[in-house]
Amino acid sequence: MLRRESQPTHERFKMNNPSRKLALIAALFGTLLVAGCGQTGGGEEEDTPEANAFRYREGLMTVIAAKMAPIGAMARGEMPVDEQTFVEYTNDLAALSNMVSEGFETEGIASGSASLPEIWTNMDDFQQKLEEFQQSAEGLAEAANNGGFEAARGLVQGTAGTCGGCHRSYRRRAEE
Ligand code: HEC
User: Fold this and answer.
1) Which of 54, 56, 158, 160 is the one with CA 20 to 30 A from 37?
2) Torsion (CA) 70, 10, 98, 100 in degrees, nearest 10
């Protein structure tokens, strides 16, 4: 009941079932733990609500980027197309996009965070940019589920564009 390993991947990922969500959360949690352990540069690990929110979104964004990169590379022809991975990752991306808002519920910018204060002063606009990402990622996953790589390929650039659409206004640039 918990796992459905024997089903073909396209069947597993078509279903928006709770076990898929659980598996994703477990995977994400593992990544967050690893990300957390690797973070010793800033001295003492802060245990404030702001620091916890920052670690959550940092881990989440890292996973989002890890899914987006191969999707983009396949679409640009820079990486051999693997249908199964493509379909799986687009579905992961759509699910991950629905976990972003949690990372911004606690207002405040912990040390090391690249979030800009405008997130909380322009929350409506921030939410709109988040919705653009969610809708685009969901459309991409749906196209991949229904028609595979060829059907979804043309949507990849649009989805990737929604990352920058938010970062431009709400994420501090590295060099600043
Ligand atoms: C609605 C806004 C929004 C969207 C959409 C968004 N991001 Fe982000 N992202 C942020 C913010 C804000 C930060 C800075 C978080 C912090 O440091 O507190 C960030 C940080 C990151 C980071 C740095 C993580 C780290 O190591 O600290 C990466 C990588 C990233 N985003 C990738 C992506 C990718 C790839 C997409 C699209 C597939 C995406 N983001 C979509 C807002 C967004």
Assistant:
1) 160
2) -30
Mean pLDDT of the chain: 85
Structure tokens at 161: 């564009």
- Ligand 1, atom 8, lies closest to the CA of 61
Buried b / exposed e over 145-163, threshold 16 CB at 10 Å, is beebbeebbebbeebbebb
User: In terms of C-beta density within 10 A (0-12 exposed, 13-18 middle, 19 or more buried), how is residue 65 classed?
Assistant: exposed
pLDDT tens per residue, range 104-135: 999 999 999 999 999 999 999 999 999 999 99
Q: 64 in ligand 1 pocket by Cβ < 6 Å?
A: yes
